[in-house]
# Entry
Amino acid sequence: MRWMWIDQIIQYEPDRRLVAIKNVSLAEEHLHDHFESGPDGDALPLMPTSLIIEGMAQTAGILVGTMSRFQEKVVLAKVVKATMEKDVVPGQTLRYEAEIERYDPLGASTQGKIFRLTHPETEWEQIGTIDLMFSHLDQNVSGIEFPEENFVFSDNFKTILQSAGLAHLAAIESE
# Structure
């Protein structure tokens, strides 16, 4: 996966929960001209909700991947529910909290909460929920064979796992 919508894993409870953060910066191209200037001339760059959902999908996908030590090809199958009550703007930090709801050989479902932190405040504010379903491609009923390389958990994900001290979960210890 080329685009990363999380910066760091900050908590991991095996087989249960994973928490990641994303610092939103005006240096990110997707925020430029996201909303054009209004009649008063003020621009209002916002983090697109679709990318916030993708950040949760990456967080929860890593959690689901750890359940099989990344031996399954995990892909997002369905956004079950997504609610966002407030916008996120540059200078704020997103916090993604993903929990396993169900896990079996065919896939998993997760429940997620989204928080934001407006600096210099120190309290996280919950701004949404995102519940997702994932599929294990190797267990698909279509009979289609997929390549052996794990195309979802790329080098970027490996870097995030290594920086969180979780490289051993994916057998990617430093060579």
